[in-house]
Design a protein that fits this description.
52% of the residues lie in helices and 15% in strands. With 389 residues, the protein is an alpha+beta fold.
Length: 389
């Protein structure tokens, strides 16, 4: 196994660092406080090719791999962005991945070039009020009527819906299947659409990426809006779920590395009782321990991305992706906590940014999958223990 980056990968990381420094902590502080969507940052990602890393070059992308995307996102987060780049990166990359994998030629030609250059934002509609972690319990239904479908239902926690130009909507098209994993269908829908009403959800953090509750009332779409095959939506989603978990792991690690970096800087210059506080083991050991855990989580994350790029069995990729997400989030929560403690009262002050990074990593405990569900997955699918839910 070679841990050295290629020349091309080094260039991607270097470019990501430059973007991160241009859109640094002060930029994100302002966006968070004012609840402003960072459209200039998103467009910059598109202009530099980051949103098209895994989109084929014939559709405006660079045709690279998830490993390059993982390296880029970690660098964006650890060099100035904190947790902010994660949601902004995912809403471009995940829509592009789904269309690249399952779209027909018309859909690819229409959407992928715009996604790759940052001119199109995609929202993803899976979660429902009674179907969060249990995605197979969704009830939003698409009733077929000739060449059209009439869709009714609701979605919740849909990020950047009001900013998006395209919507990947997960529905049921059949309730008669013996297995709940069957009968789900993906639709790719242009926005805005009057049949979808949204209401804003105030949040604990990441207010630069607004989140909405949706009501879908008699949304009429043509059969050509189906992404992939009717009834196979769940299986199509699986090819996006693993990359999502890997990228969230990378973002969590990058956010925590940024926090550790700032805590170390402060611990070197802050003098108490005649010595820098970084010399005291009560400060030094927690930071060192947290950093070691971050590095181990990073190895698991890169391994998961590598297996995905090698087109290994999705189950094998999912095993490592779930464990990487779990380890990355646990390590990032610990690291941002100790970073905040290192700064004392300044750590609680918004102007020093660490409290924001701590708030941002809390989201990763819950999305795209809870920490508890990653452990359920590990216990059942890796250790072979009885199903617990």
């Amino acid at each position: 196994m070679d841990f050295n980056l290629s020349v091309e990968q080094k260039m991607i990381v270097k470019s990501a660092k430059e973007v991160a420094k241009k859109f640094g902590p002060e930029y994100w502080y302002e966006k968070e406080e004012n609840h402003e969507f960072p459209i200039d940052f998103f467009e910059a990602l598109g202009e530099l090719g980051f949103l098209g890393l895994e989109i084929p070059d014939e559709y405006g992308g660079t045709g690279m791999t998830l490993t390059e995307g993982t390296l880029a996102l970690e660098a964006l987060c650890s060099n100035g962005g904190g947790g902010a780049p994660v949601l902004n990166y995912l809403m471009g990359v995940l829509g592009g991945l789904s269309i690249a994998h399952h779209g027909n030629n018309t859909q690819k030609g229409t959407y992928l070039p715009k996604i790759a250059d940052g001119k199109m934002i995609t929202a993803f509609g899976l979660t429902e009020p009674d179907a969060g972690t249990n995605s197979l319990a969704i009830e939003t239904f698409a009733q077929k009527e000739g060449d059209y479908y009439i869709i009714n239902g609701s979605k919740i926690f849909i990020t950047v819906f009001e900013k998006a130009q395209a919507f990947l909507l997960v529905t049921r098209t059949s309730r008669e299947e013996s297995k709940r994993s069957k009968g789900m269908t993906l639709f790719l829908i242009d926005l805005p659409n009057d049949a979808i009403k949204s209401s804003y959800i105030p949040k604990h953090g990441m207010n630069y990426s607004p989140t909405y509750d949706l009501g879908i009332d008699n949304l009429k779409v043509h059969k050509d809006c189906i992404l992939g095959e009717e009834g196979k939506g769940w299986f199509h989603l699986l090819e996006t779920i693993n990359p999502e978990r890997i990228l969230v792991a990378a973002g969590a690690i990058g956010t925590a590395r940024m926090a550790i970096k700032e805590a170390v800087k402060y611990a070197k210059k802050r003098v108490v009782f005649g010595r820098p506080i970084g010399a005291f083991q009560g400060v030094q050991f927690p930071l060192a321990g947290a950093y070691a855990k971050l590095e181990c989580a990073w190895l698991a994350t890169i391994k998961a991305a590598t297996l995905h790029d090698q087109k290994q069995n999705p189950k094998k990729v999912g095993d490592i992706a779930n464990m990487a997400k779990y380890l990355a989030v646990e390590a990032s929560i610990e690291a941002t906590y100790h970073a905040m403690q290192t700064l004392g009262g300044y750590g609680y002050a918004k102007e020093y940014h660490i409290e924001r990074w701590w708030r941002e990593v809390q989201l990763f405990r819950l999305a795209p999958i809870t920490q508890q569900m990653t452990l359920n997955y590990t216990g059942e699918h890796i250790l072979g223990l009885p199903k617990s839910y």
